[in-house]
Structure formats: C-alpha cells, structure tokens
Amino acid sequence: MDIKVELGKKIRLLREKKGLTREDFCDDELELTVRQLTRIEAGQSLPTLPKLTFISQRLAVPIHHLIDEEYYELPKRYLQLKQRLYKLYTYREEDRIAKKEQTFDEIYENYYGSLPEEEQLSIDVQQACMDVHLAENADFGEGILSDYFSQILQKKEYSINDLLIIELYFHCIHFRGYDEKIFLVLFNKVIEQVDYSVDVEMFLLIKVLLAAGSVFMEYDNYSKLIDIVKVINLIMQTSQDFQKKPAIDIFEAKYWLFSQGDTEKAEQKYVDGAQCAKLFGDIALSEKILKEWELDLKVFNEKQ
C-alpha cells in the first residue's frame, strides 16, 4: 500500500476517534493548516517530520505508531540538487537558465513524487519564482501565495519555505499591485530573522533581502538599500560566505548614486563589485556590472 495513503487513513481514524474536527485539530493553523491536513488524510501528501511530530502530539501517540521514521531520509542527490537551486542565479542568461531548468527537471522526474509536502512546496516555490521573473507575470505565483501568505504574516520566526514564499511575494510585487505597508512589515521581519537563523537560512536571508532591494529600486526608494547592505554584510561576516558580495556592492553603488548623488563613491562600488565577480571566476557578471554602471550613470545624468 502507498505509504501516504496508509498514513493518511491512520491519522484520520485516530483524529475522528478523538472526536476532533480538522479545524479543532489544527487549532490556530500555525503548525498545520486545515488544507494541509486534508491533503495528508487523503493520502495526497506526506507531512514533514515537524508536522508529523505536531500530529503525533495532537493524537497523543508516538511517531513510530504512525510511520517508520526511516521514510524521512531524503536522497543525497536530491539534497544536492536542492542546494544547487538555492545558489544558482540566472541573471537572465540563457546558459544559467538552461542549467536551472535541467535541475528542476531532474528533481521532478526522479524525486518529486516521493517527497514530503514541505519539500514539494520548496521546489514549487522556487519554480514559481523563476517563472514569475522570466515571464514578468505574477500569475505564476498567485496559487502558492493564496494558500500560504496569510499564514506567514502571523509568524514571528520563519522556516526555509516561509523565506522562499516571501521571496516569491517580493518578485510578484514587480508585476502587480504594491501594498507598501505589508511589504515593509515583511521586510522588517526578514531582517529580524538574523537573530534566529543559521547555515542555509542565512543564505536564504540574503536572497530574500536582495529581492526586497529590487522592490525598493522598482519604486525609487534607494535610501533603503543601505539598510540591506549593512544587514547582508553582517550575515556574510558571520557565515564567511561572500559569494553575494558583487550584488551587495551594486546595491551600495546605487545607494550612493541615486540616493546620495555621489558619483565617485558609486563608481568605486561598481568597480569593487566587478572585480569581486571576476575574482570568483564569473567574467560574465563582472562585465554585466560595468555595463550597468554606464547605464545607471546615464540615467542619473539625465535626471540632473
């Protein structure tokens, strides 16, 4: 029998035996939503270990009574592919886009169907982010946001998937209505996550903050970029991972140019970013940064 179907039936029977509706069982839905429980009980998705722990506590039974925990060992190759998705930026370049699409294809073909729902969501969100970005259409993210965004707004601490969904929301802002109040609330909460996050979460915080920075630039709020620069520099110093330094140098350059009107400092940061990218072996990005400096300087001069 399919492990998802067997587990779902067992959870539903134990819940009903306790006389609990799905709404009562999920309580405030911070740990588990009614929609997620419905899918689990229908055998359509496998809960993650944290959600299974919550379910076992609500049912007052040990986890091993519900499922053998060995099912929660994720394949090593899948984890490698997932890490690749986190770190691969396309910059709208065809070879990078193709590499990312190949990574998605391998996951969907070989692993997706047997993954817990939270892992599937992680992949779906990243796919949606790429689709929104490349198609310049927020519709690709609407389904995920309608299901999960309200839950995120209630949280104080964010999981990896929460950060990915916030990143998706920031990407969608470019192509739909902009609620500045909600955006700023999320932006400030993301900054606060520095106190809670480690390892992978730190890297994702940088990604989300970069996405937030693109929103500030979209709405000509360049003065806020320096806040992002300071936080990400702190994260990089803590993690000793400086792969995103070229992007941070660009943010700081745009701050000096468009917010402070200091062309000398702006040029130096663009040069720093280009040199850093070149040092990392990314010649294409280095050249892209220098071209962006020329374009930004032209825009700045036209506004004077």
Q: Which features does this protein show?
A:
about 300 residues; mainly alpha; 434 Repressor (Amino-terminal Domain); 16 helices; about 0% strand
Describe this structure in words.
- The protein is mainly alpha-helical and 304 residues long.
- Helix content is 72%, strand content 0%.
- It has 16 helices and no strands.
- The longest helix has 21 residues, at 283-303.
- The radius of gyration is 22 Å and the shape is elongated.
- The mean pLDDT is 91.
Note the main sheet. Answer: none
Note the beta-strand portion.
under 5%
Helix content: over 70%
Q: Identify the overall geometry.
A: elongated
Radius of gyration: 22 Å
E-strand count: 0
Structural class: mainly alpha
Distance between the termini: 70 Å
Provide the succession of SSEs. HHHHHHHHHHHHHHHH
CATH topology-level name of one domain:
434 Repressor (Amino-terminal Domain)
What is the tally of helical segments?
A: 16
Quote the average pLDDT: 91
CATH superfamily of one domain: lambda repressor-like DNA-binding domains
List the uncertain runs.
none
Query: What is the top-level CATH class of one domain?
Result: Mainly Alpha
Task: Based on the coordinates given, report the CATH architecture of one domain.
Answer: Orthogonal Bundle
